[in-house]
Amino acid sequence: MTSNDVRDMLDLPGNVGPRPAKKQKIAAPKSTLKGLAREVQSLGGDNPIAIVPEVTAFKKRRFASRKPAAKWEFKPFKNSARKDDLILRHWRRKTEAPPAPAGQDGKTEQANAQAEAEMDDSTFAKFNVRVKVPTYDDEQYKLYLQSEDWSKDETDYLMGLAQDFDLRWPVIWDRYEYQPPMPDMEGVEGAIMTVPKTRSLEDLKARYYKVAAAMMIVHKPQDKMISSEFAMYETMLSFNPAQETARKKFAENAFHRTRDEAKEEESLLLELKRILARSDKLNEERRELYARLEAPPSTGNIGIYSSSQGLQSLLQQLMTVDKSKKRRSLMAPEGASPAPGGSNLLQQGNLDRRDSSVRESMSVASASNGKRGGTAPGPTERRQLTEEEERTYGVSHPTDRLTSGPLFRYEKLSKPVTTKSTAQQMKITNTLNELGLPPRLIMPTADTGVVYESLIESIIRMLQYRALSDKLSGEIAIAKAQKAEKEKRERAARGEPEPGAGDAAAQEEDHDDEVKVEDGERQKSVAPSVKSDNAHKRSASVLSSVSDKSTKRQKK
Fold first, then answer.
1. What is the Cα–Cα distance from 361 to 100, expressed in whole angstroms?
2. Which tens digits make up the pLDDT trace of 149-178?
3. Which of 138-142, 353-357, 377-381, 497-501 is predicted with the least confidence, judged by mean pLDDT?
4. Pair 430, 490 in one domain
5. Domain DAMP1 SANT/Myb-like: where (predicted)?
6. Which residues partner with 74 through β-bridges?
7. Could you tell me the residue range of the domain that residue 445 belongs to?
8. Does 426 map to a domain?
9. What is the C-alpha separation between 361 and 499, in angstroms, rounded?
10. Which one, of 405, 383, 404, 403, lies nearest residue 395 by Cα?
11. Among residues 494, 516, 532, which one ends one of the domains?
């Protein structure tokens, strides 16, 4: 039977409200006493134990000493930073002077009166620091500070602003409002307006530093300056307004750049550092290579190797020794017999000469073989260099047949020149000197050698073209001379006079008259040279005219 059935039997409503919530007992917080155990406090139950804690605190003494209270006085003071003589007063602790010995009472009273007469200075006057602006008079300005762009009145105005605003140049430039004085208006019609010049911050600085440096050297010579003064003097002299303007413009552009531009600049700086580090490393490796290429000092006799025959015999000996003593491979299988004759030393030398890449390949090969079950490692291939590494280390793959023995690059470069004649070699050397290039390269790298070879070929080709041009010019001159001679003979056969013959004869007669006027001795010395000169200066027309006259006489 449920509660609903009971309600139907008793005619009670079926809808019943929610069940009332149980009231929670609110327990007041128990007061805990410090210094008592928990078991003792729990004996009281809900009622706390009525125990009043004892506080042992005593009243402190109000006065630590029995001395009398200090005396204060309302004393006047002045401020040396002020231009006016304003006197103010403030409270100061009164200081009692020690008692004077007997017989000096009059002096003590006089000192007290003098101390009272002298007023104290303000404690804030020491913070009034004023800058020292250069001073000058009219005579010094005329001697050292004359300028076409600056007048004395404007210079004084600038010095006054620098003194007032303590060399704070942004404030000085903001307050700079110089008005030039009005000119004399007597006898002048109309109004004359003086336009002030626009001065930039750098112009104001440059003028001030120039005046300060000039007056500094006037008041104190350079040989009497200390190091700090001389450094300041050099700094003021070396001030450059254009450089300062460019620096501020660069700083402004750097401030207004975007985030992407800043990241790009940072990446460029990192790349530049990487390039510089790489170049330093390459230079260090190059120096080490040159140090290794230098011949070590020898204690034996090397005179037998000074000739080509001695070097050839030395090469044959080295090749024989190399063939007799085969170097044992580092990756030889186990149980192989060692090579006779110092194999340990050869193996050690091979290990020293191996580079890091070969060591890495050996370590990888040994590790892989160990994982497979400890089988004997086989020979590994050398790491192939990339194009950039080959270009860096100067590795090349020549297609031509190489000769036995060492071959230096400068010999290959000088071979096209040495095969020429002595005159051709002199011409090539003179051409290189005109271009400012040495006949032998200091650093004959592979790239430099290619360019140098192309330059030598161009010079040789140019000399060949020049010789051919000279040859053609000579042949053309000979052909012209033959043609002129042929025309002359044809005119002589026809009896025609040569053009310009009369003018040449007149010039010759005038020259003979001038020679006759001179002294006899000088005429004797000069006449042979004049005749020889005239003989050289006579043209083909003169000779042709003489031949024409002789032919006419024969006809008559």
1. 101
2. 999 999 999 999 999 999 999 999 999 999
3. 353-357
4. yes
5. 123-216
6. 91
7. 417-494
8. yes
9. 95
10. 383
11. 494
Query: What 3-state DSSP class applies to 89?
Result: strand
Q: In this structure, is residue 178 part of a structural domain?
A: no
How are the residues of the chain apportioned to helix, strand and coil, as percentages rounded to the nearest 5? Answer: 55, 5, 40
Q: Could you give the CA distance from residue 452 to residue 444 in angstroms, rounded to a whole number?
A: 9
Angle at 413 between CA 410 and CA 417, to 5 degrees: 120
State which amino acid sits at residue 331.
Answer: M
Regarding beta strands 72-78 and 87-93, do their DSSP bridges make them parallel or antiparallel, or are they unpaired? antiparallel
Please state the rounded mean pLDDT for residues 247-269. Answer: 93
- For 420-475, how does the pLDDT look when each residue is reduced to its tens digit (9 = 90+)? 888 888 888 888 888 888 888 877 877 788 888 888 889 999 999 999 999 999 99
Number of domains forming the structure of the chain: 2
Do the beta carbons of residue 510 and residue 517 sit within 8 Å?
Answer: no
Q: Give how far the C-alpha of residue 277 lies from the chain's centroid of Cα atoms, to the nearest Å.
A: 16
The reply to whether 469 and 481 lie within a common domain is yes
Q: Poorest-confidence range of 39-43, 115-119, 428-432? A: 115-119
Residue 483 CA to chain centroid, in angstroms? 69
pLDDT tens figures, 281-332: 999 999 888 887 765 556 666 667 677 788 888 888 888 877 776 554 444 4
Between CA 17 and CA 20 the distance in angstroms is 9
263 part of a folded domain: no
Q: CB–CB of 195/182 below 8 Å?
A: no
Residues for the chain: how many in total? 556
Q: Indicate whether 30 belongs to any domain.
A: no
